[in-house]
Amino acid sequence: MTAEDPRGTSRPLPFFVYGTLRPGEANHDLLLRGRALAEEPGHLPGAVLYDGPGYPYAVEEPGAATVRGELVTARPEAYQELLTALDRLEEYVPGDPRSLYVRAARDVRRAAGGTVRAWVYLAAPRVAARLRATGTRIADGDWLSRR
């Protein structure tokens, strides 16, 4: 499975957010207020979380525990605008090796049960390699626990 979803941005998937876009964090109200139809707790299996310079990075690691966060379903009329805003925030440009993150479609577990396919911003390969070598891992996979 490749990191980036090859089907592009035409599929209206929910977003799995695990850092500054979570409720109570700096970018939640700035980017999600008025654009979100629903938010619910979720978990990204097979990933670990690393502390970054004011924001976290999720890095895929098969067999790992989970990263905790929220599943955000965008209002249909705001979906494309939100997708563009989140790509900009995450400094993601499709195909650009300088991107900090890649946007990937992954299965996310709902806290209430079941799974849903969602967009997740994962550390880009070069960033993930650096984090695995020298990064500070957030042991419980929850950005909010760092406080």
Map the helices and strands.
Layout: E1 15-17, H1 28-32, E2 36-45, E3 47-51, E4 56-60, E5 66-74, H2 79-89, E6 101-110, E7 115-123, H3 125-134, E8 136-138
Parallel strand pairs: 1-7
Antiparallel strand pairs: 1-5, 2-5, 2-6, 3-4, 3-8, 6-7
Please give a structural write-up.
This protein is α+β, with helices and mostly antiparallel strands and 147 residues long. The protein has helices spanning 28-32, 79-89, 125-134; strands spanning 15-17, 36-45, 47-51, 56-60, 66-74, 101-110, 115-123, 136-138. The protein has three helices and eight strands, in the order βαββββαββαβ. The strands form two sheets. Strands 1-5-2-6-7 form a five-stranded mixed barrel. The chain has a three-stranded antiparallel sheet with strand order 4-3-8, with helices on one face. Strand 3 and strand 4 (56-60) form a beta hairpin.
